[in-house]
């Protein structure tokens, strides 16, 4: 999921349970396209790989992600901006407040995605 803040999801996709998150996120970012004005994208350490950071940069975003502690050549990042990553985590927590999302009762991906969209709309109205 790509989210703007704790209340607004920009894009999301479902991935198979055995698939890694980073390749799926790269597909999602490519599907969003490039941006006209540079803006920051705050990412979890799970996405700090060179391939993901290079893709984010090529799409016009500025990656804000801390390097893992075992990186040979660590980079600098905006620590104050990275503190806002918890807003996205709060969006996930709100989504999981809906039992149907948390437990994934739906067998069909289309039905599950539809309920996620419905949940996001309900959260936006509140």
Summarize, please.
The chain is an alpha+beta fold and 126 residues long. It is 46% helix and 13% strand. The strands form 2 sheets. A two-stranded antiparallel ribbon has the order 1-2. It has a two-stranded parallel sheet with strand order 3-4.
Walkthrough of the structure:
By secondary structure, the protein is α+β, with helices and mostly antiparallel strands. It has one domain. The chain contains 6 helices and 4 strands. The chain has a two-stranded antiparallel sheet. It has a two-stranded parallel sheet with strand order 3-4. Helix 2 links the parallel strand 3 and strand 4. The protein is globular and about 45 Å long. The two termini are 21 Å apart. 10% of the residues are buried. The model has no long low-confidence stretch (mean pLDDT 83).
Estimate what percentage of residues fall within beta strands: 5-15%
Structural class: alpha+beta
The termini sit apart by: 21 Å
- Extended strand count: 4
Largest sheet: 2 strands, antiparallel
Order of helices and strands: EEHEHEHHHH
Shape: globular
> How many alpha or pi helices?
6
> Rg, please?
16 Å
In terms of per-residue confidence, which ranges show pLDDT below 50 for 5 or more consecutive residues? none
- Report the mean per-residue pLDDT as an integer: 83
Share of helical residues: 40-55%
User: How many structural domains?
Assistant: 1
Strand order of the largest sheet: 1-2
Chart the SSEs and their pairings.
Blueprint: E1 2-5, E2 8-11, H1 21-32, E3 39-42, H2 50-58, E4 61-64, H3 79-82, H4 86-96, H5 99-103, H6 109-125
Parallel strand pairs: 3-4
Antiparallel strand pairs: 1-2
């Amino acid at each position: 999921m790509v989210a703007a803040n704790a209340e607004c999801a920009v894009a999301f996709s479902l991935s198979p349970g055995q698939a890694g998150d980073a390749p799926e996120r790269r597909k999602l970012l490519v599907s969003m396209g490039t941006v006209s004005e540079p803006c920051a994208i705050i990412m979890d350490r799970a996405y700090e790989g060179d391939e993901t950071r290079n893709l984010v940069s090529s799409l016009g975003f500025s990656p804000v992600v801390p390097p893992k502690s075992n990186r040979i050549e660590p980079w600098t990042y905006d620590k104050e901006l990275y503190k806002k990553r918890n807003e996205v985590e709060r969006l996930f927590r709100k989504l999981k407040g809906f039992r149907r999302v948390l437990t994934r009762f739906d067998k069909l991906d289309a039905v599950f995605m539809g309920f996620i969209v419905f949940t996001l709309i309900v959260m936006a109205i509140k």
